[in-house]
């Protein structure tokens, strides 16, 4: 069988996900105005990895500088916006948590990825947290409060500061394990805010093949009632009783993200040394007989790619036998390596329910909603901006970074423009959009 050369990254511990309305509108020539309602003097961004600028399986200084809140803040300066402080890694520790770089691309869907392991902000003087190594502290007040991996559920839990290194670095030692993200957000005094939170209330579960980790209380789908209660508190903390305006973004569909759509039955069959009629088997239940052939309605995770065809030793009545992983009912792709058709439907329905909550809570607070879900679904077939083609395709689509979930700087610029479009429409403002071609896509070797 073919030996796959996708060097699987450690996809960030708490991955967080991505985008969605109609084909992007670009208007670089406007008369800048905040309109009658908006005050951008103290813009605060609340969210997860997408808000932090996370990309390529990690968080690093260049990524932070190209986060969509940083891009928004630059545009807000033209209409009275103030200073926007991010918890940037220093130049000496510019590679932050570490990330992936593209070392080669033998085929469009088979990149050779290598980890960047120098000039990190990883602390060696203390024990790691359950969520990974601790990072250099940044406890000064910040405007970008994004925490990679955070969910609405974990946002209300003080202990989370002692679990997630991205949140721990924003807290003083005395606050770790004592102050929740919700409390941290409530301390801010924004004049305007964006909040893109809720992805990880589904995504952590989805990226593990719809399998919850019994050792991680935040790895399952967040119950709708719990989500509603915490999300309501979060928005109340930001709006300050209706005094502060902002925009919230909802949760995208997993079928719009290359982490879930790049590897499928056809792409496996098209791989070198795999017969065109090869049958791939997946596990769909706990019993030994709960195995069936993979179909095009099942989503093989991107991190499963290098495992397909791996020669595994499988115990048989005649003794251990090497059987290619996935190519025999006795050695199927595991439940955590695939989202089967039923699991896809389950996750899509949960996303729909959580997005309904987001819309209802935003409406109750008279806050604008960026429908990211609709945006990503509407761009699945691709679109053009300034004669450049974009799509949700892995690497070649120009939108998604090397982890298949988070965006490139160009992708974040497009998202920033969509936020601006919503702001201008809802609040009758004229914030100028950004020229997305000033931002890079995937860096090729």
From TrEMBL:
Signal sequence interval, chain numbering: 1-20
Keywords recorded for this protein, A-Z: Signal
Highest taxon of the lineage: Bacteria
GO MF term list: hydrolase activity, acting on ester bonds
InterPro entries referenced in this protein's UniProt entry, alphabetically: GDSL, SGNH_hydro_sf
Keyword Aminoacyl-tRNA synthetase (UniProt): no
Protein name: G-D-S-L family lipolytic protein
Organism of provenance: Pontibacter actiniarum
């Amino acid at each position: 069988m073919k030996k796959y050369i996708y060097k699987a990254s450690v996809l960030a511990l708490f991955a967080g996900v991505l985008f969605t309305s109609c084909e992007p509108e670009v208007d670089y020539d406007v008369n800048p105005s905040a309109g009658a309602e908006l005050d951008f003097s103290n813009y605060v961004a609340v969210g997860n990895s997408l808000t932090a600028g996370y990309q390529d399986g990690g968080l690093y200084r260049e990524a932070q500088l190209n986060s969509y809140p940083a891009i928004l803040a630059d545009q807000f300066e033209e209409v009275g916006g103030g200073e926007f402080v991010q918890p940037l890694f220093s130049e000496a520790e510019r590679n932050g948590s570490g990330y992936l770089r593209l070392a080669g691309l033998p085929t469009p869907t088979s990149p050779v990825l290598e980890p960047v392991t120098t000039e990190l902000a990883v602390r060696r003087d203390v024990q790691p947290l359950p969520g990974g190594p601790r990072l250099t502290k940044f406890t000064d007040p910040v405007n970008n409060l994004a925490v990679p991996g955070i969910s609405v559920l974990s946002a209300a839990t003080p202990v989370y500061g002692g679990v997630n290194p991205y949140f721990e670095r924003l807290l003083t030692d005395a606050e770790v394990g004592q102050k929740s993200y919700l409390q941290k957000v409530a301390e801010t005094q924004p004049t305007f805010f964006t909040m893109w939170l809720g992805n990880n209330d589904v995504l952590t579960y989805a990226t593990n093949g719809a399998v919850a980790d019994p050792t991680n209380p935040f790895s399952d789908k967040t119950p709708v009632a719990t989500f509603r209660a915490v999300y309501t508190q979060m928005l109340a903390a930001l709006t300050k009783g209706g005094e502060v305006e902002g925009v919230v973004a909802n949760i995208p569909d997993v079928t719009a993200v290359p982490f879930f759509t790049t590897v499928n039955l056809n792409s496996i069959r098209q791989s070198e040394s795999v017969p065109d009629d090869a049958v791939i088997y997946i596990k769909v239940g706990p019993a030994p007989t709960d195995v069936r052939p993979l179909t095009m309605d099942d989503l093989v995770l991107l991190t499963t790619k290098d495992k397909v065809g791996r020669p595994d030793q499988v115990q048989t009545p005649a003794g251990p036998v090497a059987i290619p992983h996935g190519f025999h009912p006795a050695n199927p792709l595991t439940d955590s390596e695939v989202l089967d058709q039923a699991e896809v439907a389950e996750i899509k329905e949960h996303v729909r329910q959580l997005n309904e909550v987001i819309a209802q809570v935003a409406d109750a607070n008279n806050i604008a909603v960026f429908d990211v879900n609709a945006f990503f679904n509407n761009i699945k077939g691709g679109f053009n901006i300034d004669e450049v083609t974009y799509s949700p395709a892995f690497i070649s689509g120009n939108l998604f970074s090397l982890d298949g979930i988070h965006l490139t700087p160009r992708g974040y610029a497009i998202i920033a423009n969509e936020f601006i479009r919503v702001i201008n429409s809802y609040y009758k403002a004229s914030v100028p959009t950004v020229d997305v071609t000033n931002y890079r896509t995937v860096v090729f070797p």
